[in-house]
Design goal:
Radius of gyration: 18 Å
Largest sheet: 9 strands, mixed
Strand content: 25-35%
Number of helices: 5
CATH topology of the domain at 23-29 and 47-184: Rossmann fold
CATH architecture of the domain at 23-29 and 47-184: 3-Layer(aba) Sandwich
Structural class: alpha/beta
Shape: globular
Number of strands: 11
Strand order of the largest sheet: 5-4-6-7-3-8-9-10-11
Helix content: 25-40%
Order of helices and strands: HEEEHEHEHEHEEEEE
Protein backbone atom coordinates (compact mmCIF):
# COMPACT_ATOMS: atom_id res chain seq x y z
CA UNK A 1 0.00 0.00 0.00
CA UNK A 2 1.40 3.39 -1.00
CA UNK A 3 1.75 6.34 1.34
CA UNK A 4 -1.19 8.18 -0.22
CA UNK A 5 -3.46 5.14 0.17
CA UNK A 6 -2.38 4.65 3.76
CA UNK A 7 -3.10 8.29 4.55
CA UNK A 8 -6.52 8.06 2.94
CA UNK A 9 -7.33 4.98 5.01
CA UNK A 10 -6.19 6.48 8.31
CA UNK A 11 -7.74 9.92 7.78
CA UNK A 12 -11.36 9.02 8.60
CA UNK A 13 -10.23 7.09 11.67
CA UNK A 14 -8.31 10.10 12.98
CA UNK A 15 -11.33 12.33 12.43
CA UNK A 16 -13.63 9.90 14.21
CA UNK A 17 -11.25 9.66 17.17
CA UNK A 18 -11.04 13.41 17.55
CA UNK A 19 -14.83 13.62 17.43
CA UNK A 20 -15.07 10.90 20.08
CA UNK A 21 -12.64 12.77 22.35
CA UNK A 22 -14.66 15.95 21.90
CA UNK A 23 -17.86 14.11 22.82
CA UNK A 24 -16.30 12.63 25.94
CA UNK A 25 -14.97 16.03 26.98
CA UNK A 26 -18.31 17.72 26.38
CA UNK A 27 -20.37 15.13 28.25
CA UNK A 28 -17.97 14.66 31.14
CA UNK A 29 -16.80 18.23 31.67
CA UNK A 30 -13.22 18.93 32.58
CA UNK A 31 -10.69 16.25 33.43
CA UNK A 32 -9.81 15.33 36.98
CA UNK A 33 -7.94 18.00 38.88
CA UNK A 34 -4.27 17.10 39.09
CA UNK A 35 -3.28 16.94 42.72
CA UNK A 36 -0.53 15.03 44.46
CA UNK A 37 -1.23 12.06 46.70
CA UNK A 38 0.64 13.34 49.76
CA UNK A 39 2.67 10.16 49.92
CA UNK A 40 6.06 11.84 49.86
CA UNK A 41 8.52 13.12 47.26
CA UNK A 42 10.28 11.08 44.62
CA UNK A 43 13.97 11.10 43.76
CA UNK A 44 13.73 14.59 42.27
CA UNK A 45 12.05 15.96 45.40
CA UNK A 46 8.69 16.41 43.70
CA UNK A 47 5.45 14.50 44.09
CA UNK A 48 3.98 13.79 40.63
CA UNK A 49 0.34 14.21 39.73
CA UNK A 50 -1.41 10.85 39.72
CA UNK A 51 -4.53 9.16 38.38
CA UNK A 52 -6.65 7.32 40.92
CA UNK A 53 -6.37 3.55 41.34
CA UNK A 54 -8.52 1.26 43.52
CA UNK A 55 -7.95 2.33 47.13
CA UNK A 56 -6.60 -1.06 48.13
CA UNK A 57 -3.93 -0.89 45.42
CA UNK A 58 -2.75 2.65 46.16
CA UNK A 59 -0.05 1.39 48.51
CA UNK A 60 1.58 -0.50 45.63
CA UNK A 61 2.45 2.69 43.77
CA UNK A 62 5.30 5.00 44.78
CA UNK A 63 2.93 8.00 44.84
CA UNK A 64 -0.39 6.33 45.53
CA UNK A 65 -1.60 6.11 41.93
CA UNK A 66 -0.66 6.07 38.25
CA UNK A 67 1.89 8.82 37.76
CA UNK A 68 0.90 11.13 34.92
CA UNK A 69 3.34 11.11 32.04
CA UNK A 70 4.24 7.44 32.49
CA UNK A 71 3.85 4.15 30.65
CA UNK A 72 2.73 1.14 32.69
CA UNK A 73 2.34 -2.43 31.45
CA UNK A 74 -0.17 -4.93 32.79
CA UNK A 75 -0.85 -8.63 32.44
CA UNK A 76 -3.19 -11.25 33.83
CA UNK A 77 -6.83 -11.02 34.90
CA UNK A 78 -8.98 -8.55 32.95
CA UNK A 79 -10.76 -7.58 36.17
CA UNK A 80 -7.68 -5.57 37.08
CA UNK A 81 -8.13 -3.38 34.00
CA UNK A 82 -11.80 -2.90 34.82
CA UNK A 83 -10.91 -1.84 38.35
CA UNK A 84 -8.33 0.65 37.08
CA UNK A 85 -10.76 2.11 34.53
CA UNK A 86 -13.46 2.36 37.18
CA UNK A 87 -11.25 4.07 39.75
CA UNK A 88 -9.78 6.67 37.39
CA UNK A 89 -13.02 7.57 35.58
CA UNK A 90 -14.94 7.79 38.86
CA UNK A 91 -12.45 10.44 40.01
CA UNK A 92 -12.92 12.49 36.84
CA UNK A 93 -10.27 11.17 34.46
CA UNK A 94 -11.11 10.73 30.79
CA UNK A 95 -10.26 7.19 29.68
CA UNK A 96 -9.83 5.54 26.28
CA UNK A 97 -9.83 1.75 25.81
CA UNK A 98 -8.24 0.51 22.58
CA UNK A 99 -8.50 -3.00 21.13
CA UNK A 100 -10.26 -4.56 24.12
CA UNK A 101 -13.72 -5.12 22.70
CA UNK A 102 -14.36 -8.10 24.96
CA UNK A 103 -13.81 -6.06 28.12
CA UNK A 104 -17.20 -5.63 29.80
CA UNK A 105 -18.11 -2.00 30.37
CA UNK A 106 -21.16 -3.19 32.30
CA UNK A 107 -18.79 -4.79 34.80
CA UNK A 108 -16.77 -1.56 34.90
CA UNK A 109 -19.93 0.41 35.65
CA UNK A 110 -20.80 -2.02 38.44
CA UNK A 111 -17.35 -1.31 39.89
CA UNK A 112 -18.15 2.41 39.88
CA UNK A 113 -16.89 3.60 36.48
CA UNK A 114 -18.31 6.80 35.01
CA UNK A 115 -18.98 5.58 31.48
CA UNK A 116 -19.60 9.12 30.24
CA UNK A 117 -15.85 9.56 30.63
CA UNK A 118 -14.87 6.35 28.79
CA UNK A 119 -14.29 6.16 25.01
CA UNK A 120 -14.04 2.74 23.34
CA UNK A 121 -12.13 1.83 20.20
CA UNK A 122 -12.97 -1.87 19.93
CA UNK A 123 -11.28 -2.40 16.56
CA UNK A 124 -8.27 -0.10 16.11
CA UNK A 125 -7.14 -1.81 12.90
CA UNK A 126 -3.67 -3.11 12.19
CA UNK A 127 -1.82 -0.54 14.31
CA UNK A 128 -3.39 0.08 17.74
CA UNK A 129 -0.42 2.22 18.80
CA UNK A 130 -1.21 4.73 16.07
CA UNK A 131 -4.66 5.13 17.56
CA UNK A 132 -3.20 5.35 21.08
CA UNK A 133 -0.86 8.11 19.91
CA UNK A 134 -3.81 10.25 18.85
CA UNK A 135 -5.75 9.55 22.04
CA UNK A 136 -2.83 10.56 24.26
CA UNK A 137 -3.43 14.13 23.06
CA UNK A 138 -6.85 14.33 24.69
CA UNK A 139 -7.33 11.57 27.27
CA UNK A 140 -5.94 11.15 30.78
CA UNK A 141 -5.63 7.35 30.62
CA UNK A 142 -5.22 5.29 27.44
CA UNK A 143 -5.48 1.51 27.82
CA UNK A 144 -4.25 -0.32 24.70
CA UNK A 145 -4.05 -3.99 23.76
CA UNK A 146 -0.72 -4.73 22.04
CA UNK A 147 -1.98 -8.12 20.80
CA UNK A 148 1.18 -9.90 21.86
CA UNK A 149 3.53 -7.55 20.02
CA UNK A 150 6.96 -6.44 21.15
CA UNK A 151 7.25 -2.68 20.70
CA UNK A 152 10.58 -1.46 19.26
CA UNK A 153 12.50 0.78 21.67
CA UNK A 154 12.51 3.66 19.19
CA UNK A 155 8.71 3.70 18.96
CA UNK A 156 8.31 3.16 22.70
CA UNK A 157 10.38 6.29 23.32
CA UNK A 158 8.19 8.35 20.99
CA UNK A 159 4.97 7.33 22.74
CA UNK A 160 6.50 7.72 26.20
CA UNK A 161 7.53 11.26 25.28
CA UNK A 162 4.02 12.00 24.07
CA UNK A 163 2.54 10.73 27.34
CA UNK A 164 4.95 12.95 29.30
CA UNK A 165 4.15 15.99 27.18
CA UNK A 166 0.41 15.54 27.66
CA UNK A 167 0.59 14.46 31.33
CA UNK A 168 -1.36 11.33 30.41
CA UNK A 169 -0.88 7.65 31.27
CA UNK A 170 -0.45 4.85 28.75
CA UNK A 171 -1.43 1.46 30.15
CA UNK A 172 -0.38 -1.34 27.78
CA UNK A 173 -1.53 -4.96 27.99
CA UNK A 174 -0.67 -8.24 26.25
CA UNK A 175 2.71 -7.29 24.88
CA UNK A 176 6.27 -6.26 25.64
CA UNK A 177 7.10 -2.61 26.24
CA UNK A 178 10.76 -1.70 26.83
CA UNK A 179 11.36 0.79 29.61
CA UNK A 180 7.90 0.78 31.19
CA UNK A 181 7.87 2.65 34.50
CA UNK A 182 6.08 -0.26 36.20
CA UNK A 183 4.48 -3.61 35.49
CA UNK A 184 1.21 -4.73 37.07
CA UNK A 185 0.18 -8.37 37.12
CA UNK A 186 -2.94 -10.03 38.48
CA UNK A 187 -4.16 -13.57 38.87
CA UNK A 188 -7.38 -14.98 40.26
CA UNK A 189 -6.60 -16.39 43.68
CA UNK A 190 -10.08 -17.46 44.74
CA UNK A 191 -13.78 -17.39 43.99
CA UNK A 192 -16.76 -16.57 46.19
CA UNK A 193 -20.20 -18.07 45.78
CA UNK A 194 -23.50 -16.64 46.88
CA UNK A 195 -27.18 -16.44 46.17
CA UNK A 196 -29.21 -13.22 45.97
CA UNK A 197 -30.41 -12.19 49.43
CA UNK A 198 -28.28 -14.73 51.29
CA UNK A 199 -25.53 -13.68 53.66
CA UNK A 200 -23.58 -16.86 52.96
CA UNK A 201 -24.08 -19.73 50.58
CA UNK A 202 -23.40 -23.31 51.52
CA UNK A 203 -20.43 -24.93 49.80
CA UNK A 204 -21.45 -26.12 46.34
CA UNK A 205 -24.57 -23.96 46.12
CA UNK A 206 -25.31 -20.65 44.45
CA UNK A 207 -23.36 -18.96 41.70
CA UNK A 208 -20.03 -17.19 41.61
CA UNK A 209 -20.63 -13.57 42.55
CA UNK A 210 -17.07 -12.43 43.10
CA UNK A 211 -13.44 -13.36 42.85
CA UNK A 212 -10.22 -12.42 44.58
CA UNK A 213 -7.20 -11.10 42.70
CA UNK A 214 -3.60 -11.32 43.81
CA UNK A 215 -2.01 -8.16 42.37
CA UNK A 216 1.68 -7.36 42.24
CA UNK A 217 3.63 -4.34 41.03
CA UNK A 218 7.22 -4.19 39.87
CA UNK A 219 8.75 -0.77 39.34
CA UNK A 220 12.19 0.73 38.96
CA UNK A 221 11.94 2.86 42.08
CA UNK A 222 11.07 0.29 44.77
CA UNK A 223 11.04 -3.46 45.51
CA UNK A 224 8.11 -5.57 44.22
CA UNK A 225 4.93 -5.18 46.24
CA UNK A 226 1.70 -7.17 46.40
CA UNK A 227 -1.90 -6.65 47.48
CA UNK A 228 -5.17 -8.48 47.25
CA UNK A 229 -8.26 -7.15 45.54
CA UNK A 230 -11.85 -8.34 45.90
CA UNK A 231 -13.94 -7.88 42.77
CA UNK A 232 -17.55 -8.67 42.15
CA UNK A 233 -20.86 -7.33 41.02
CA UNK A 234 -20.69 -4.08 42.98
CA UNK A 235 -17.46 -3.72 44.91
CA UNK A 236 -13.72 -3.60 44.68
CA UNK A 237 -11.92 -3.95 47.99
CA UNK A 238 -9.39 -5.75 50.14
CA UNK A 239 -9.61 -9.29 51.42
CA UNK A 240 -8.62 -9.82 55.02
Amino acid sequence: MGEAAATAEVGPTVAQLRQAMARVGASAGTAAQRVDSGTGPGEDGLVPDVLAVPATLAELFPHGGLARGSVVSASGAGSLLLAMIAASSAEGAQVAVVGLGRLSMLAAAEMGADLSRVALVADPGADPLQIATILLDGMDLVVVNLRGASVPPSRAKVLAARARRNSSVLLVVDGRWPGAAAHLSARVSGYRRGVPGAVEARCGYGRINGWDLAVSLRSRSRPPRSARLVTGAARVGRVG
